Amino acid sequence: MSQHERFDPEDHPELEQTDFDRLTTKGVSRRNFLRGGAAAMGLFLAASPLAQAVAAATRPAPSTLIGFKAVPASTADSFVVPEGYVAKPLISWGDPILKGAPAFDESGTQNAAAQAGQFGDNTDGMSFFPLGEDRALLAVNNEYTNYEYLFAHQGKQDLTADEVKKSQAAHGVSIFEIHRNAKGEWQVNRDSDYNRRITAYTPMELTGPVAGHALVQTAADPKGTRALGTFNNCANGQTPWGTYLTCEENFHKYFASAQDEVELPSRDQRYGLKAGNRDYQWYRHDERFDLAKHPNEPHRFGWVVEIDPMDPTSTPKKRTALGRFKHENAALTIDPSGHVVVYLGDDERGEHLYKFVSRDKYNADNQQANRDLLAEGTLYVARFSANDGEIKGQGEWIELSHGKNGLTAENGFADQAEVLIFAREAATQVGATTMDRPEWVAVHPDNKAVFCTLTNNKNRGKDGQPVGGPNPRAKNNYGQIVRWWPHNGDHTASTFDWDLFAIAGNPTLAEGLYAGSDNITADNMFNSPDGLGFDDAGRLWIQTDGKYSNKGEFAGMGNNQMLCADPQTGEIRRFATGPIACEITGLAFSPDHRTVFIGVQHPGEDLEPSHFPAGGNSKPRSTIMVVQREDGGVIGA
Ligand code: FEO
Ligand code: CA
Ligand code: CA
């Protein structure tokens, strides 16, 4: 479970009387589920064209792309892969990656300096950068940390100054070299000069339209150009010019105050900032995290950060032109026109889906010339419309540029920097569609279709979040995957067509929309799709961050998992299952596609009984798994 939901009792339906009956649409066939769903939602839709339209989009057929035998749902404390595959841990939270760093010690008493030389916690998005046939760098996000395991006192005490520093060092990004030995096994090279830790206190440069603006100036940085650190790095992106993109998500959780109340403008409150967010306790010993003292500091977070993994001395660059929100990943593609296009989700209930188009064009012959392409460009936000009676339709990208579409001084936007810093407010101003928590975006290798996980949204149907379009279910606890096709294959175009590739659900318990689309079966069901990525052959890989109670409306789904889909036929097959109370997030393929690296994040969160990966009585640890085939074949084929 991602941390943004950890303390919300409403997110633990197994603890409550289930209201599942109210949500299901009894008495309709699955193939006609949209008719039932529409009736349940109080919509007036023609039944047959609607059912046909979605059935056509999602009807599964035998896949020639996918060759492995599905694994069953699991509640075991292990990482399970298909027959003929092997999975081994590569690295776990606390393993040393810098020279001189100590080995992991599970007592929880290691200090900040130790953590700063070790792999960070909560492995998330990652990218593979080849250095040669059998050598590569992995750049990996360390999204957050679990105090119940980080400290011997489990976070139940006020943190000391060193403990705040240790927490900050458990966050950020880890970059390390890996090599493949004669047996074909990948291992970490702990002595490599490339190895680097980037933490919540690593100096970074603010670039683009926001750099130097009054709203990012602070006492420590009166020029507003040099921020310290990155944290809550969720998912990632990779550029063809060899850099890594790390995306700052729930930055609001780290800002608090010793004061009971701090008055903040509503545009700041919209990001969840408030004095009472004290779980991380950083404000106790690092004054910049006290909102009462430094109200501009949070404006320096919530960005996409570009890192050159090949130069361990390089300064990471915050790319403000891509907007400030709770970034999930950064799905980058080169449009046929040569512009760099980056698709971006803002993971919060009822927030939005964005697209960045670079001002300048990509130059395949001169990678050095591409290095600042993400500094300047145009940001857009999506507005979806549905065909009459269908869960598919058209959409448009609305430009978020100062002076256009009502983004004017009269409406509260003094300049482009304000549009970008308060991108959420700008999106509302232009009438963007509220989404069911946009998570990862992935561009199909044919560069024509784009997919995005909408993980879930218990608030759909209330709070100004209407049911309809790509968000077709009230109290959406299962999630769906939307896909769109830019018109004429042009990612810079302002219009697109869309449908839903999959609607997750539970066909063993429900009918209608809550049973899911026709490609969801008793054998592959899951909830809360989150991580998403294509391999070169066009297989779509789906990772989940959902409810693992295996009870009530989630019965039969088991632990979080990874699935593989064929976008042509719609078939979805379960590939792997994770240990107890983990999330599966982060994936990277070796260029030959004979190895896939998969992230197992926070096994045993909230003291659930996991001992993954070491077993016995050991402390559970976030771990990257290396998965290969026994016959050395291509993953998934
Ligand atoms: Fe970090 Fe939206 O998951
Ligand atoms: Ca998530
Ligand atoms: Ca995620």
From TrEMBL:
Pfam families per UniProt: PhoX
Source superkingdom: Bacteria
InterPro entries per record: 6-blade_b-propeller_TolB-like (IPR011042), PhoX (IPR008557), TAT_signal (IPR006311)
Protein name (record): Transcriptional initiation protein Tat
Lineage: Bacteria, Pseudomonadati, Pseudomonadota, Gammaproteobacteria, Oceanospirillales
